Amino acid sequence: MDLTTGVPAVDTALLWGAAVSVLVGGVTALWRAVRAARHLSQRTSQFLDDWYGEPARPGVPARPGVMERMAGMEERLGHVWHEVYPNDGGSLRDAVDLANQRLARLCPDEPGVAPCAPPEPPAPPDGPSAA
Length: 131
Known about the structure:
The chain is mainly alpha-helical. It has helices at residues 8-52, 66-84, 92-106.
């Protein structure tokens, strides 16, 4: 099969057009690959800066890294655990348990015993209302 048109000027123009198209396509593919690699590199750099933290610079405060921030969260969580679990009597849990024990002494849950009723509100004073 003959791939020529029979006109040498048209054949040359088609050959150069195909070469330019392939060259532009190759440059475009290379440009997109470089742009994607640069974008990935920038994102990786940002991630690593966030992970390891950044030291202070003039006019910019230091930013702690992930591990340093996690250590701070673990310390705060330790304070919460101290309050939630019974320990030496100084936790919130100990205070709630003590209040429940005192309430149980005031209002025992025994079968056949009426539950403690709340105190009745005081009666309104006799006489004209001060409206």
